[in-house]
Every structure is written in C-alpha cells, then in structure tokens.
Automatic annotation (TrEMBL):
Residues 876-1056 form the Tubulin-folding cofactor D C-terminal domain. Keywords: Chaperone. This is ARM repeat-containing protein. Pfam families: ARM_TBCD, ARM_TBCD_2nd, TFCD_C. The keyword Chaperone applies. The keyword Chaperone applies. HEAT repeats lie at residues 339-376. InterPro entries: ARM-like, ARM-type_fold, ARM_TBCD_2nd, HEAT_type_2, TBCD, TBCD_C. One of its GO terms (molecular function) is GTPase activator activity. The lineage of its organism: Eukaryota, Fungi, Fungi incertae sedis, Mucoromycota, Mucoromycotina. SUPFAM superfamilies: ARM repeat. Residues 270-519 form the Tubulin-folding cofactor D ARM repeats domain. It comes from Hesseltinella vesiculosa.
Length: 1161
C-alpha cells in the first residue's frame, strides 16, 4: 500500500506549473530582462518533473512556443548577436527533450520567407562552439519543417550565389552529420525531409546515397556513420515508395550486404541503425497494403468483448482499400528474402536495441507479404527456437546450449506477429509449446544465471495473445498458459518479470475471460503485490494455491525449478512457500512431493541438494503440525515406514565432499535444519542414524560461519530435547569451550550449552560446571589469539539462555549462592571488556551481551533471592551500566539506557539515590541523542557512588571521533563543572572533589590509551578554560602532574605527546608558589629537545602563547628576549644546533635546569 500511495502521490493530473512557466517565458521574451538564463534554468527544473508525463504539456505548447519563435524570427532578421538568442533556443531544446521534437516542431513558424534567413543564421554559427549547440539543433529542426512548404524550392531561392539553396542545405547537413552532438540528429531529420520532396529527390537522392556509401567506405568515423545511417533511415521512412524503388537494387542492397559494416561490429547503435534501415528498405519493396489473410479478432472494445463478440473474421475493410485485398499476385523482389534473412540474423544480436528493431521490422514486413511467404517467415522464426536444443535420455528438452539472445529476439518477433494478427491460429499450438519454455527460461552461467529478458519477452507474447485472438481460439491452450503465467507472476526472481507476467495474466483475464478464477487472482497478484518477492512467495502464492487447478502446478514448479535455483534466497523462499502450502493438501505431499524430492537431497550438485534438503525440512515440520490435528493423516504417515527411513538416512547418504568443499556451508545449514525439524517431529530413528545426526551437528558447531553455527545450535537443541543427552556427552561439550580449543568450536559449543534443558533434577549438578565453564570462556585473555570476541560474546549468550530457561525452582535449588555470585562477578567483568582488533571495539559485543543478561537476571534474582542483591552490589552494577549508557558507541548507549531505566523502576532493588535518579532520568530520554543525553547525565556526578564510572564514560565520549558526540559530551561536562563551587561546601560536589576523581580515574586507567587520550584532552580544556587552575590544593595538581608524567614517559605516540603538552601549558596558569608550575615549565623546555620536530614546534608555539600573555602584564626584558628566541628559532633543525639556544631559555625564564642523575651500575 505504501508503494501504491507513493506512486499516486507522484502522478500528476495536469500541468501544475502552467502559470509559473508562462511568467518565466514572458520574462524570457522581454528584451529588458537581464536574468534570462536564470529563467531558463527554472523552466528546466519545471519541465524535468514532467518527463514521465509529458503529454500534460500539450494544451500549453502553442502558447509556450509561438512567442519564443516570434522573438527568434524578429531577432534573426535583425541579425543580432547569437548570444542574445541562446536562452530562447535553450528553452526550445528543453521542450523537445521533454515532449519530443515531432510534437514541438508543429508549433514553429513555417513561412517561405523564413527559409533563407534561418539557413544563413545557421551557416554563420561557429560549428565548434559548445555554447551554441542547442541553437544549431533547433535551427535544423526548424528548417526540416520550413523545407516542407508546398512550393518548388528552386523557385523560392533568391539566387544570390551560383550554388542553389538546396545544395547549400545538403552541404551544411553533410558537415553536421559527423558532429558528436545533438546537431547530428537535427541534420539527419533535415536531410530526410529535403530528399523526400519530389523536386529535390529527382536530382539529389541517388547522389546523396552514393556519397553515403563513399563516406562509409572511406573512413571509420563512428559519429559520421551514425549520422549517415540515421539520415538514410529517415529518408526511407518519409519518402514515397515510387521515388525509392529505383535506389533499392542498385544502391541500398549492395550497401546493406557489403562487409563495410564489419568494422562497426562492436557498436550497438550502428548495428541498430543498420537493422532499422534493413526493415525500411524491405517495406519499400512491398506495396503498402493490409494482408487479406491475417487473423482478425473483430471489435477490440472491452465493452463489446464482455458482451456478444463477433466471430473472428477477416477484417472488414472500407471501400477505398478493397481494391488492395486481391493483389497478392504482384512480383516480389528476391531481395526481400535477403532483407528478411538480415532481420532474422538481427534477432540473434547481442544487444537488445538491435533485436527489438529486428523484431519490429519482421512484423512490419510480414504484414505486407502474401500468405505463403508470411507463413515461411513464421516457420523460420519458430525454427530458431529449436537451435541447439535436443532431448536427453529421459526425453527432457535440453536447452543448455541455446542462445538467450536468439530466444529473446524470437520472442519479441512472435509477440509482434501475434499483436498484428499475422500468427495464424494453426501455429498457436507449436508457438505456445515454445513460449512455455521461454517463460521459465533460465540458463546457469557460473555462479549466476541469465534469461530474465527472455522471460519478460515471453510475457509480452502472452500479452499479445490476449489482444489478438478470440476466446474460443485460446481456450484449448488455457490449461498450459494460465499456470505458467501464474508461476512466473509469483515465483520469478526478477520483479520486472513478475510484473510483466501479472500484466499478461490480467490482460488475458480481461480480454479472454476464460482463465479459471481470473478475477480473484488478479486481485491477489496485482502490480504492487508482486513487487515484493517475500510477499509473493509467502502470501500471494499461498492464497492462489488454494485454487486447486493451479495448486499442483505451483508445487511442481517450486520443487522442480525454484528449489534448484542458483540464488540461495530463492531456494529458501521455495522451501518456506512449500511449508505454507502443506496444509492445503498434506496427503499429496506425503504421497508425491516427499518421494520426488528425497532422491535429490543426496545428489552431488550442491545447489540442487541444498534446495531439496530445505524443502524436505520445511515440509516435514509442516506435516508434523498437520498430523497433530488429523489422526487419519498421522495413521497414513506411520504406515509409510519406507518414507520415514529414507528421510532419516539422508544425512548418512549425503556425499562427504558436500560437507567440506567450497560452498559446503549451505549444505550444512540445510542438513542442520533438516536434523532439527526431524527431531522436532519425534521421528523414530536407530542409534547409528542418531549418531550420524549428532556428528554432523557437532562438526557444524565447529565451523567458522556464524550462520552455520546458528543452524547447528538450533539442531542441537532439538536433538537434545527429543532424544536426550548423557553425562559423558555433556562433559565433552564442556571441554569444547575451554580456552585451549579452537575459537570456532568455543563459539558454537558456548551457544549449544545454553540450549540444554537443566530443569530436570538429575541435571541440576551440571549447572555448576556449565556456569563456571561459560564464565571462564567469557574472560579476557592475555594472548590475543585466544582472546576471541565472538567466543566471549557467545559464552554470555549461552549463560543468558540458561538463566532464561531455568524455572524458579531450579534458579533457587539448582544454582547455589556461590554460583549466583560467580554469575554476577562474570557479568561485571564483561562490562570491562574493551578488547579491540582491526574491526574496532569488538569488546562492545561482550558488553552488550552482558548488559542484556544483567537486565534480565538482576530483577529476577532480586525477586527470588533478595539477600543476593545487596544495596552495595546493585549500586555497583548500576554504576557500571551507567558508564555504558554514556559511552561513545550509539547502540551501546541505547542498550545501556534501556537496561538502566528498567533497573531504575524495578521495585525489589535498592539503588542509591533511586528517587533522585528517577527524577533526573525521564522514561522518554533518548540515549541515542547526544544533545538530549549528556546535559542530563552530567548531573548524576553529584552522587559519589556513581562518580568514577560515570566520569570515565563521559571522558571517553568527550574524546570520541564523532564530532557531534564529542561536542555535546565535552560542552555538557564543562558547563556542569563551571556551576560547581571550587571547594567543598558540605552540600554540593566541588571542583576539588571532581579533580580528585579525575586523578583517581587517571591512575586507574594508566597506560590505557582508550581512556587516557580523551582524559588528557579534557584535562587540558579544564586548565585552558581556567576551571582547574582555581583549585588551591597543590596535592591535587601534583597528583595530576605525576599521572601525566608517567603516562607520557618514553612514549612515541605523537597524539598523546601533543595532548600532554597542552596539559603542561595548562599547569603554567597555576600560581607561582605551586611547584607543579615550575616542573611543567621544565618539562616543556625539555621537550624543545624532543626527537620529533613536530613536538618541538608545538612546544614552541604553546610557549610563545604563554609568554605573550605574560608580556601583556609586564615589560621584563628577559621575558621579551625569551619570546624573541622562541619565535626566531627554527626548532625543526638538528638538536645539537638548537640545544645552546634552549639552554639560554632556562636563564631567561629563571627556571633551574634539571640535573641529570646517572644510574648506578
């Protein structure tokens, strides 16, 4: 419905911009207006909106064109500068681009007096000027209209020169036929119109054709060849047949059959123009008459067809054409056969535009042929379908060697013949036989297939049948045609084919009225409903399958065609569609479908086997649901032991190579799904079959593909649920999640352990082992090879799954208090996982999994075992989640915020300052919006219980890469700190306390760049803004100085060094009696000798800024000298040369030079 509403919204009913367009045209024609080009641009924008509905312009074209033409005529006579007319010509070109030149040219002036002035104007233009191409094109189109005046062109020639006007026009056209722009098309139109005149063609037609042949032979200019062929096509379209006949045998046929076109084999446009010229020459050979033998349905009115339609007869002709009916005996040139042969070859061309032109040409020529020759053409066309086809040993038609180009071209030609009534009813049976194959045409080419264009053309043929033939003619073929169109409408991969097939079906329903349940089906499978592939397979197809006459054809198509499709998505959809069709006739599926599909499941072709296994999997599960509701169906199923055994042994019979070779992941997914669904149906199997199932599931759990592991986990759950699990197997599975095993097996088995049912009393002891095993698997490992993010995440997923599945009794009785505390400790530790690799912060996967688990586990355990959730523990967990809710990754923040709000309003939890937090954090707070989030969350820094964790999260966000996130986090933090008192007033948090917390965070995350880099940046801002320098406690500044010194000790990280320099410069704002200031200045001066020139220059810049501020307060000469040294020295020079200069700064700034202490050996 959304697509339909969108389409209606963008469909216009009239020219909405008529008034505005008229105002702009008035502005364009006003000589006093200077903004003409701006008006043209606005008109271009308006016209572009009507490119798809250009007919809406028709009522206004005359009013648009005539005032513009009047201005152009006037100014041409005045011989004004061409630049003044460019906006007018550009507007006319925009009209032709939108509506087409044939429509627009009708409204141009065509007075005799315009001919020579327009020619003179055009000939004086600079052919190389890019700005004037629209003017040249419009002038050519205009001349093509003027030259059709009903007067002898030689008599209207002023005769100012020895060369006649006609020859000058032709010479000018020949010049522009080689143009690379639009002028070439205009010149082609003018040549065609000129040479179509009897007074011009007599003297100039044959010389022009001779010139064309000479030019094509002489050079390889593609643009000139295109122009020449376009002009010839135009000539042979508009010139009378009597004029053209003398040129055909002697000039055109030799040209068309000569090898000169071989050099243009790779140019589709030239091949198309050659094909078009072929058909125009062929039409010129034949008299313009209506074939007396063609099939005519009668009145084409839908209203009449719904009533009593007349019988199909030969068309009733008016008396004026009656004399043409019986003149089939005139001689037809043998060259017509040559032309038809060229067009038949054109149907094989590799480009669609050439094939389509050839198809139309065959239709037009056949319409003028006698019946006998026309039927030869039809026979030749149908023979092209048989090229490279043969029947295999099973009498199936093998089409692997056919050409999709040929089938597409022939389908288009057949559609053209049918539409024109030239395909007689006696050919319909053979034609529909091949069209049914064309509707399903799909040739596999490597990892994909081709044939969508063939299927689309086949739908066009079916559409043509509906318009061409009477219902009684089509009635014998409905049982073949209707199911084929239905399957294409709902099961084709390409949306354009589905829509084309739906349109063909709808046309047949409307015009034939004999398709079973046609009205009901077109209401289901309309243009919009078939646009979505999932919808057509899973909804539309199922609804149509309720109609019995289509059901079994659709099931057969899914089994024999779609389930073998090269696209995996199609095979999956086929299996799901079959699953939904099972309830319509479950007996048919038991007796026919499953026996037909089962052998395909063990073939070596991976695509066929994958589709068959998926289909069996879905069908068996759907049948199980039907069997539970129908005892008779259950009896039928149980009586068929052979079928059950064949299903159970599929896994054993599957070729081993299919499970290991390239693409085996698809087979493993399907087999795991089959095993899982068969296990759900409680299929009785022997021990060796069950063991083979377990082996394939276990080996799939160790695969690296996550989709295979997911299917294996589902199968593992179904098998253990239906057939049980013993302690030995459980112990083996526990060992597979140990760190010593491969990471892929750890990932799979961690998820699998979560699917086991631990509520059975005899399995309670297993809970301790599995909780500790998964807890160990979720820990961060020091070895990066074993520190696998997916394995840790899956361990938490498995733990979460266990906690969700165990009932309240097992939660209390089966899991001890120590195990509960271990679970909480594990989840807390996972919130600290910030592992990173080339993919980024992969630790966030573990943190999000942990938060989801905590969000479920903490409220439940608080309800069942309140002593476990002490206020201190809950507050600590709440603080850790609060940290995640303000971090830099959006999805982590959003999940953290969701869990935070859930815990905040849980009644059984005791959270510190819960009432204040409930007021501060509204339930509708968007944690994904940085602008809304950070101004709220910084206020929670008032509470000491959350301060360290929250401040850490805010600091990391303030150093984020995302500019908006960094800006909001940093500004919110700074604005909050500005509102705080400097020292403790006993009521609110002070700047001193916050700076102390800053130092604590710094020491906690020492050498962890993830935190320390943004911490250094924000600390530098605090000193830069004068916030931190208000703190009077030397101890705090000394702590921060010590942390900064340790952090940058021997570091080679340029980014960190630059941040450290800004912090040291910030320390310089402290009072002189605080030792940190002197130490910071010493460090900055020592950095002037740093190994990296960039660091030295950054220090120099920062020191200059600091000294400039000092210089404003005092006129100390030594300070001025130091400032001069800083600015005049090139600090990128060699260290040995600048060391004496640096040492001079110690004296000038009255700073003791640090003493170098030698280490004792």
């Amino acid at each position: 419905m959304e697509v339909l509403e969108d389409a209606i919204e963008h469909t216009k009913s009239h020219f909405e911009h008529a008034q505005r367009a008229q105002e702009l045209i008035t502005c364009l024609c006003d000589d006093e207006t200077l903004e003409k080009m701006q008006a043209v641009k606005q008109l271009g924008v308006i016209l572009d909106e009507y490119q798809e509905q250009s007919h809406l312009l028709d009522p206004y074209l005359e009013g648009f064109v005539q005032p513009v033409m009047a201005n152009i005529r006037r100014d041409i006579l005045k011989t004004l500068c061409i630049d003044a007319l460019l906006p007018l010509f550009r507007f006319l070109y925009l009209l032709t681009k939108t509506r087409g030149y044939k429509t627009v040219v009708k409204f141009m002036s065509h007075d005799v007096s315009d001919l020579e002035p327009v020619y003179d104007f055009l000939s004086e233009m600079d052919a190389s000027s890019f700005e004037q191409w629209e003017a040249r094109y419009i002038c050519f189109v205009w001349l093509s209209l003027i030259c059709m005046i009903p007067f002898d062109l030689y008599k209207v020639d002023r005769g100012d020169t020895e060369t006649p006007l006609v020859e000058k026009l032709l010479l000018l056209c020949k010049v522009y036929l080689k143009s690379t722009g639009k002028e070439r098309d205009g010149a082609s139109v003018l040549v065609a119109r000129l040479l179509s005149r009897r007074d011009v063609s007599h003297d100039h037609l044959i010389p022009y054709i001779t010139w064309c042949r000479q030019q094509l032979d002489a050079n390889d200019d593609v643009f000139e060849a295109t122009g020449i062929l376009s002009s010839l096509c135009g000539i042979y379209q508009v010139t009378s047949r009597e004029t053209l006949l003398p040129t055909l045998d002697e000039y055109l046929i030799p040209m068309l059959t000569s090898p000169l076109f071989d050099k243009y084999d790779n140019n589709a446009v030239i091949r198309k123009l050659r094909t078009k010229l072929n058909q125009r020459v062929g039409i010129a050979y034949l008299k313009p008459k209506i074939a007396t033998w063609r099939y005519h349905r009668g009145n084409r009115s839908l209203r009449t067809n719904l009533g009593d339609a007349p019988d199909a007869t030969v068309e009733n002709l008016d008396p004026g054409l009656a004399s043409q009916i019986h003149d089939d005996d005139y001689d037809i040139s043998e060259n017509v056969e040559t032309i038809i042969d060229l067009l038949l070859n054109g149907l094989r061309d590799k480009d669609t535009i050439v094939r389509w032109s050839a198809a139309k040409g065959i239709g037009r020529i056949t319409q003028r042929l006698p019946e006998l020759l026309a039927q030869d053409v039809v026979t030749s066309l149908l023979g092209l379908f048989e090229e490279n086809t043969f029947f295999d040993a099973k009498e199936h038609l093998d089409m692997t060697a056919v050409s999709d180009h040929t089938w597409h071209g022939v389908s288009l030609a057949i559609g053209e013949l049918a539409r024109r009534g030239l395909l007689l009813p006696q050919h319909l049976e053979q034609t529909i036989y091949w069209v049914n194959f064309a509707i399903k045409f799909d040739l596999k080419k490597g990892s994909h297939s081709i044939g969508a264009h063939v299927r689309d053309a086949a739908c066009y043929v079916c559409w043509s049948f509906a318009r061409a033939y009477a219902p009684e003619i089509m009635a014998p073929f409905v049982h073949k045609l209707a199911p084929s169109l239905i399957t294409a409408s709902v099961f084709d991969r390409e949306v354009n084919v589905r829509r084309a097939s739906s349109a063909a079906f709808q046309e047949n329903v409307g015009r034939q009225g004999i398709f079973p349940m046609g009205i009901d089906i077109i209401q289901l499978a309309d243009y919009f409903s078939v646009g979505n592939r999932n919808n057509t397979f899973l909804h539309v197809a199922v609804e149509i399958a309720k109609i019995q006459c289509y059901r079994y054809h659709m099931i057969g198509h899914l089994v024999q065609v779609t389930s073998k499709h090269w696209d995996k998505t199609m095979r999956v959809l086929a299996s799901k569609a079959l699953s939904r069709m099972v309830p319509l006739d479950p007996v048919y599926f038991i007796q026919n479908t499953i026996p037909a599909v089962t052998p395909l499941a063990t073939v070596k072709d991976i695509q066929i086997a994958h589709g068959a296994i998926l289909c069996l999997s879905e069908i068996c599960l759907a049948l199980y649901k039907c069997r539970q509701q129908d005892p008779s169906l259950e009896a039928l199923w149980q009586a068929n032991n052979v079928l059950q055994k064949s299903l159970a042994k599929i896994v054993q019979a599957c070729p081993p190579k299919s499970l290991t070779t390239f693409g085996s992941e698809h087979i493993r997914e399907a087999i795991c799904q089959l095993v899982g669904n068969l296990a759900q149906t409680k299929l009785v199997v022997c021990d060796n079959v069950l063991e083979s199932w377990k082996q394939v599931v276990q080996s799939s759990l160790e695969r690296k593909e996550e989709n295979v592991q997911r299917c294996a986990v589902d199968a593992f759950a179904s098998v253990t649920q239906s057939y049980g699990i013993n302690a030995t197997e459980f112990g083996m599975y526990l060992k597979m999640v140990e760190v010593s095993h491969m990471m892929y097996s750890r990932r799979g088995y961690a998820l699998a352990l979560g699917t086991i049912n631990y509520n059975q009393t005899n399995r309670h002891p297993w809970l301790h082992d599995v909780i500790h095993s998964l807890g160990l698997a979720s820990k961060v490992q020091t070895d990066h090879h074993t520190n696998d993010a997916e394995a840790k995440r899956n361990a938490i997923f498995g733990l979460h799954e266990i906690l969700m599945k165990v009932d309240d009794n097992t939660m209390v009785q089966g899991i001890t208090e120590d195990d509960h505390m271990y679970i909480i400790a594990t989840l807390e530790n996972c919130l600290k996982d910030y592992s990173a690799d080339q993919r980024g912060d992969v630790g966030s996967w573990v943190r999000t999994a942990s938060m989801r688990c905590l969000g479920y586990y903490i409220p439940r355990i608080a309800q069942l075992w309140k002593t476990l959730t002490s206020p201190v523990l809950v507050t600590r967990i709440f603080a850790a989640i609060m940290k995640q809710s303000v971090e830099r990754i959006d999805r982590v923040r959003q999940l953290g915020g969701s869990v935070l709000q859930s815990l905040l309003w849980t009644p059984n939890l005791t959270i510190a300052h819960v009432h204040e937090l409930q007021k501060l954090i509204p339930t509708d707070l968007d944690f994904g919006s940085a602008s809304d989030l950070y101004p709220v969350m910084v206020q929670i820094l008032d509470f000491s219980e959350y301060r360290i964790e929250l401040l850490t999260g805010l600091i990391t966000s303030a150093g984020a890469i995302t500019e908006s996130l960094m800006r909001y986090a940093s500004s919110s933090l700074m604005d909050y700190i500005r509102t705080l008192p400097v020292s403790n007033d006993g009521v609110n948090v002070s700047v001193e306390e916050l700076m102390q917390t800053w130092a604590v965070v710094f020491m906690k995350y020492e050498k962890q760049d993830r935190v320390t880099l943004p911490l250094l940046d924000t600390l530098g801002q605090l000193y830069e803004f004068g916030i931190a320098s208000t703190v009077c406690s030397p101890t705090i500044h000394h702590q921060l100085y010590s942390c900064v010194h340790k952090e940058c000790f021997r570091t080679k990280n340029i980014k960190k060094l630059l941040s450290v320099i800004k912090v040291y410069v910030g320390f310089l704002a402290l009072p002189s009696d605080i030792p940190t200031k002197t130490k910071s200045l010493q460090k900055l001066l020592s950095y002037l000798m740093h190994a990296y020139p960039r660091v030295r220059m950054e220090v120099a810049d920062q020191l200059f800024g600091y000294m400039s501020l000092l210089g404003e307060k005092s006129n100390d000469l030594e300070l001025l000298e130091a400032e001069e040294i800083i600015t005049s020295t090139d600090w990128s020079l060699d260290i040995s040369s600048i060391k004496p200069i640096r040492d001079r700064l110690y004296h000038l700034l009255d700073i003791p030079k640090p003493a170098i202490t030698k280490k004792l050996l």
